[in-house]
Design brief:
Elements: H1 19-36, E1 50-55, H2 61-72, E2 76-80, H3 93-102, E3 107-112, H4 117-122, E4 130-136, H5 142-156, E5 163-167, H6 174-185, E6 190-194, E7 209-212, H7 215-219, E8 224-227, H8 243-250, H9 254-257, E9 265-267, H10 280-283, H11 290-308
Parallel strand pairs: 1-2, 1-3, 3-4, 5-6, 5-8, 6-7, 8-9
Helix pairs in contact: 1-11, 2-11, 5-6, 5-11
Bound molecules: phosphoric acid mono(formamide)ester (CP).
Length: 320
C-alpha cells in the first residue's frame, strides 16, 4: 500500500518531511509545471490569500520566484523592503511579523542570517499563519533543496544508485545541508563532499557523506555535480583559501568535469562566481542544468505554498 503524505503547517526544513510527502510534493510540482506551460499561467488556487516576503538577507532567485509563484496561484503578494521598513527604527522581527499578521497575511516567506530564526518565529504566529524558510543562516534552505531534487529527478528518474558530488563551501552552505538531507531521504547512498578541510563540516562521515580533498578523485564516475559559492560573508576561519587558490584546486573546469560520467549533470544553486568555483564553459555548457533549476523553482514553490494551504491533491490544480 502507498504511504500517506502528511499535512504540513510550516515548511522549515527537509527534516520535517518523510518520503511519501516529498514524493507527493514532486507530483504537485509536476502539475504546476503543466500549468506553467499554458498561455494563461495563473490558476485560482490561492485566490483571496496574502503572501508576504521578509528578506533580511539579499536574494535574486528565491524572492522573485516566490513572488512569481504566489502570483501564478492568484494570491496577493507583498514584499516588505526591510531597509525601508520600521525594522531600521528598531522594531523587532516579531513585532514586524505581528503587524503584518494583523493585516491578514496567510503565508510568510522569510530569509534571515540567524540559523533557526524561522523555526523560532513559528512558535509565536497565529494558528492560521504558515511560515516558509527561504534560508536561515547556514542552517537550511529547504525549498532550494526541493527544486534541486526535482531537477535531478527530471534528468535521472531514480535516486537510489546515483552518485552525487557536492563541491566547496559545505560548512557555510544551508543549501548543501538541506540537499544532503533530501538525498538521503530519497535513498542516495553515494554522497560525496569535496573541498579543503576548512570548508567541510565535521561529522560528514557520520551522516553517510564521503569526504574528498582531491577534486578529480571525488568526481570519479558521479552522475550529479553540485558546486557552491564561497560564502565569504559567513567566514570566521582565516584558514580558508583565497579565490585564486580555491579555483586552482576546486574550480569546476571542463577537464575536471571529464572525471564524472559523460552524462553527468552540473548544478549550482546560485549566485555563481564565474572563474572561482566554476568556469563559464561548464556553467553554460551542455551538461549544465543551472537555469533549469531556476525555472523549476517557480513550480516547486507553487507546490509548497499550495500544500501548506491545504491544497494537497495533485489533480486539484487542473483547472482548465
Ligand atoms: N539559491 C538562492 O538562494 O539564490 P538567491 O540568494 O538569489 O535567492
Amino acid at each position: 500500500m502507498r504511504a500517506q503524505h502528511k499535512p504540513l503547517r510550516h515548511f522549515l526544513s527537509i527534516e520535517q518531511l518523510d518520503q511519501a510527502t516529498l514524493s507527493h510534493l514532486f507530483e504537485i510540482t509536476d502539475t504546476m509545471i503543466d500549468s506553467d506551460m499554458r498561455t494563461i499561467k495563473k490558476i485560482p488556487l490561492l485566490q483571496g490569500t496574502t503572501v508576504t516576503s521578509l528578506f533580511f538577507e539579499p536574494s535574486t532567485r528565491t524572492r522573485t520566484s516566490f513572488e512569481i509563484a504566489a502570483k501564478r496561484l492568484s494570491a496577493d503578494y507583498l514584499n516588505l523592503s526591510i531597509e525601508n521598513s520600521s525594522a531600521s527604527k528598531g522594531e523587532s522581527i516579531l513585532d514586524t511579523l505581528y503587524n503584518l499578521q494583523a493585516m491578514q497575511t496567510d503565508v510568510f516567506v522569510i530569509r534571515h542570517s540567524v540559523s533557526g530564526m524561522v523555526e523560532h518565529l513559528s512558535q509565536y504566529v497565529a494558528p492560521h499563519v504558515h511560515l516558509i524558510n527561504a534560508g536561515d543562516g547556514s542552517h537550511a534552505h529547504p525549498t532550494q533543496a526541493l527544486l534541486d531534487m526535482y531537477t535531478i529527478r527530471h534528468h535521472k528518474k531514480s535516486f537510489p544508485g546515483l552518485k552525487v558530488a557536492i563541491i566547496g563551501d559545505v560548512i557555510h552552505s544551508r543549501v548543501a545541508k538541506s540537499q544532503i538531507q533530501a538525498l538521503k531521504l530519497l535513498g542516495v547512498q553515494d554522497i560525496r563532499a569535496i573541498g579543503p578541510t576548512s570548508l567541510l563540516p565535521d561529522h560528514l562521515d557520520a551522516q553517510g557523506v564521503t569526504v574528498h580533498h582531491h577534486l578529480q578523485e571525488g568526481l570519479k564516475d558521479v552522475d550529479v555535480v553540485i558546486t557552491l559559492r564561497l560564502q565569504r560573508e559567513r567566514f570566521a576561519n582565516p584558514a580558508v583559501p583565497t579565490a585564486e587558490m580555491y579555483f586552482r584546486d576546486y574550480g569546476l573546469t571542463t577537464a575536471a568535469l571529464a572525471h564524472a560520467k559523460p552524462d553527468a549533470i552540473v548544478m549550482h544553486p546560485g549566485p555563481m562566481n564565474r572563474g572561482v568555483e566554476i568556469v563559464s564553459e561548464v556553467a553554460d555548457g551542455p551538461q549544465s542544468v543551472i537555469l533549469q533549476q531556476v525555472t523549476f523553482g517557480i513550480a516547486t514553490r507553487m507546490a509548497v505554498m499550495a500544500y501548506l494551504m491545504g491544497h494537497n491533491h495533485a489533480n486539484e490544480t487542473n483547472y482548465f
